[in-house]
Amino acid sequence: MKKALAEFVGTLTLVLFGCGAAVLAGGEVGQLGIAFAFGLAIVAMAYGIGPVSGCHVNPAVSFGAFIAGRMPLNEMLVYWAAQIAGAIAGAGLLLLIASGTDGYSLASDGLGQNGWGAGYLGEYTLVAALVFEFVMTCLFVLVILGVTGAGNSAFAGLAIGLTLVVIHIVGIQVTGVSVNPARSIGPALFAGGTAIAQLWLFIAAPLAGAALAGVLFRAKLLSQD
Question: Where are the transmembrane segments (predicted)?
């Protein structure tokens, strides 16, 4: 239960801080500020709840750890449930806060949901979105599995958070950056419409990318031993 609660709180924080930066302060902090909000949220949670649950706060990370042989199936499923619930709670809190001003409209301003195509940020294609989410999640999980392995560094949380910052700097205009199914599910459930219709990509591509990273570590192709 401690691990589940930690994952719930951590994922809630990621969505509230990251998507919150986009929704509440996007015009002031810009794309770079949003990128750092997501990354620094991970850094904070890595040191805050990392000792309890490992701070996955991402079903793709848990899936990669499972494929790599680092966690059992039943524990992964508990993590998934806590992460998705936390993301939904974080998105709900963000909506409650954002609705505190007459200048906000969920229909027009959104809730930091992911997407692609006409009318969404850089209007990238489905193929571009799919490739981006697959490749970036794979690289992200590779970093996580690498820095949290045997003899891991006290700076692991910082490395993971900065990797997420760079991924957002590169890809916000492509998909808004998911690399995390829970982060996508939370805002999409409230935004509805296109966000729900496109949600499949932000579940399938990150899980596939994480699986590849897990396979590489399970086969010891990227591990020291």
Answer: 35-57, 77-98, 124-147, 154-175, 195-217
The per-residue pLDDT for range 27-62, each reduced to its tens digit, is 999 999 999 999 999 999 999 999 999 899 999 999
53 in Cβ contact with 69 (< 8 Å) = no
Residue 210 · residue 67 · CB < 8 Å: yes
Residue with tokens 């993971």: 160
Number of H helices, E strands in the chain: 10, 0
Q: Which residues of the chain have pLDDT under 50?
A: none
Choose among 72, 36, 68, 37: nearest CA to 148.
Answer: 68
Task: Read off the pTM.
Answer: 0.95
User: 160 in helix, strand or coil?
Assistant: helix
Query: What are the DSSP calls for 167-225, one per residue?
Result: HHHHHHHHHS--S-HHHHHHHHHHH-THHHHTHHHHHHHHHHHHHHHHHHHHTTSSS--
**Do the Cβ atoms of 56 and 65 come closer than 8 Å?**
yes
Domains and CATH numbers, the chain: 2-103+111-218 (1.20.1080.10)
